Amino acid sequence: MLYPQRLGQFTREHADTVAALLCGLLLFLGWFALHLGALGLAFLLLPAAYVIGGYESAREGLTTLFKEKELDVDLLMIVAAIGAASLGLWRREYHLIIDGAILILIFAISGALEGYAMQRTERSIRSLMSLTPDTARVLLQGREEEIPISQLKVGDEIVVKPGELIPTDGIILSGYSTLNQAAITGESLPVEKTVGEEVFAGTLNGYGALQIKVHKPAQSSLIQRVIRLVEQAQTEAPPSQEFIDRFEKGYAKVIVVAGILLATLPPFLWGWDWETTIYRALTFLVVASPCALMAAIMPTLLSGIANGARQGILFKNGAQLEKIGKVRAIAFDKTGTLTTGQLQVFQVVSASEYTQYDVLKTAASVESYSEHSIGKAIVQAAGDLDWVAAIQVQAIPGQGIVGITQEQQVIVGNAVFVQQYVTNLPEELGKMAQSLEQEGKTVVWVARGTEVMGVIAIADEVRVEAAATISRLKKLGVEQIVMLTGDNEETARSVAKAVGIDRVYAQLLPEDKLNVIRRLQQQYQTVAMVGDGINDAPALAQASVGIAMGVSGSDVALETADIILMADRLEKIAVAMHLGRRSQAIVKQNIVVALSFIMLLLVGNFLGNINLPIGVIGHEGSTVLVTLSGLRLLK
Questions:
Q1: Is the dihedral of CA 575, 581, 584, 585 positive or negative?
Q2: How far apart, in Å, do the first and last CA atoms of the chain sit?
Q3: How confident is the model at residue 469 (pLDDT cuts 50, 70, 90)?
Q4: pLDDT for 329
Q5: Per-residue pLDDT tens over the stretch 184-217
Q6: Active-site residue numbers?
Q7: Other CB atoms closer than 10 Å to residue 450's CB: what's the count?
Q8: Which residue from 233, 304, 445, 613 has the least number of CB within 10 angstroms?
Q9: In this structure, are residues 343 and 381 in contact, taking their beta carbons and an 8 Å threshold?
Q10: Percent of the chain at pLDDT above 90?
Q11: What is the model's pLDDT at position 244?
Q12: Residues near 586 by Cβ (< 8 Å), separated by ≥ 6?
């Protein structure tokens, strides 16, 4: 019972191949019957070969003709084959029926090969969909229960054991482990994760058991967004493909008209006999069909999209893969893009009678009550030190915070705020603070009682790969690289200098960023914008190519952008640009190959140097060749 079931499954999965094999077998038997003079048997076998091998093409061609009122290459192939068979019956030259059957066979084989070639791309994309398990182990009243992913709710607590896939995005409540995030972010090395950190669906848990809280619906997880966007990219045709599609519709009509003229005029103009005229007209229908031209673009772009997804670069559609290779200018947001967006203690400067540790411990005692990012940075820096939380803590928004520790008042804040509580600000510390502020750092003063203990410089850390990325983009020939930020001029120029950007636009509102992108487009045409925040969304939408940071990026930025860097790794921009340029080069090569084959076959047909089967082999061979050429981008 199992064997017929497997046979049926194989037939469904490889229907084109089975049809081509049956067509070939019937063609051979029909040819053999003709050779033996068994015309009756031959006339049973050869029509069967026509029907089995040409059914799918005839169905697609007639559907296009009746529903869309358009001619396509499938219908042209069938017309040419039936024309050859009719000519053979009319002239009783039965070898022409064999020629028509060979046309059908080669077309069927070509369709099967193209199908297998495209399946390679589709398998790469479908592999994303197998990255999440179907069920999750949820804690319900202290007991573990497996439920479908679709039934998970925000707030559910799930358990993930060592070696299991994370079922949905969430925040770690307890446990410590290393996670392999390669499938999502393209990072090859496992990443350490502990309490409070976010984990992503589809990543592989290492050696530790984790208890995770679901913080967003399962369908909103990063991997599900990736799958939806890649599926969308498969269905959306880029401008070049749309042009080719429009070209094909007009081209097919021209071919039909030219075929009719070629089938009627040569006997009157050049004295050809009718058999030669019709045969050449049928061959013309085959060799002039633009199959190879139609296959020159989409296989290449889909392969590039699949390649990018494997490396943590998500192209929303093929048009963006085309455009990224043409970018001449790039604008970067600062905070969260060129920098990590997380404030850190950069430097601690203490007064002569105190140590740096004294300053940090005292500041942390009051800042531990603060929700401000500066306070969190100070507490994180003092994490390993022995300090005691202050009492009677009071925060003054925009100025500072005060509290009591060891029966002394502690004041932490800006210079003006601290000056209200102390006798004077030390001159040397004042000069150091001024110097740090000129470098773009935020300076926090720390005092206890009436004495200043020191200053703490806070800075947003520049991404380690930022400078190398900017250098790489310049080598790739990007003509203009600018920074757009709402931050102050000094901080912006400090970060720009560190990463190698010469042109800075600071203190910008969202609409200001939009206007800068428009001005760049007037000068450089194709402009990319890289950002992560809500305030970057207008500029991302206006840019020729909007690139968003996938992990730190806001939902608005992710929806607006055309390309998403799933691991927030800036160096992937250069990889995306290289993919775009390679795709353009391959598309151009494919178009040249396709047009060259068409021209050669047309010339050969008019000179009488090729017959129908040779024309089919040249036509279908070029189609398979450009399809396989496009799949080079999978590597």
A1: negative
A2: 41
A3: very high
A4: 93
A5: 554 445 677 888 888 888 788 887 889 999 988 8
A6: 333
A7: 12
A8: 613
A9: no
A10: 12
A11: 63
A12: 300, 629, 630, 632, 633
Q: Mark 311-328 as b/e (b = at least 16 C-beta within 10 Å).
A: bbbbbbbbbbbbbbbebb
User: Whose CA is closest to 622, among 413, 606, 602, 20?
Assistant: 602
Q: Which amino acid is at 247?
A: F
pLDDT per position as a tens digit, 579-627:
999 988 998 898 898 888 888 888 887 776 677 667 777 777 787 788 8
CA–CA distances in Å: residue 25 to residues 31, 73, 99, 229, 443: 10, 25, 15, 43, 83
Q: Is the pLDDT of residue 159 over 50?
A: yes
Beta strand segments in 375-475, E = 391-396, 400-405, 408-413, 442-448, 451-462
Pairing relationship of beta strands 503-505 and 400-405 according to DSSP bridges: unpaired
CA 216/CA 200 separation, integer angstroms: 11
At residue 2, the pLDDT reads 43
Q: Could you give the CA distance from residue 446 to residue 387 in angstroms, rounded to a whole number?
A: 15
Encoded tokens for 355: 């140590």
149 phi, psi to nearest 5 deg: -55, -40
- Give the strand order in the sheet containing 177-180: 191-193, 177-180, 204-205
**Separation CA 164–CA 206 (nearest Å):** 8
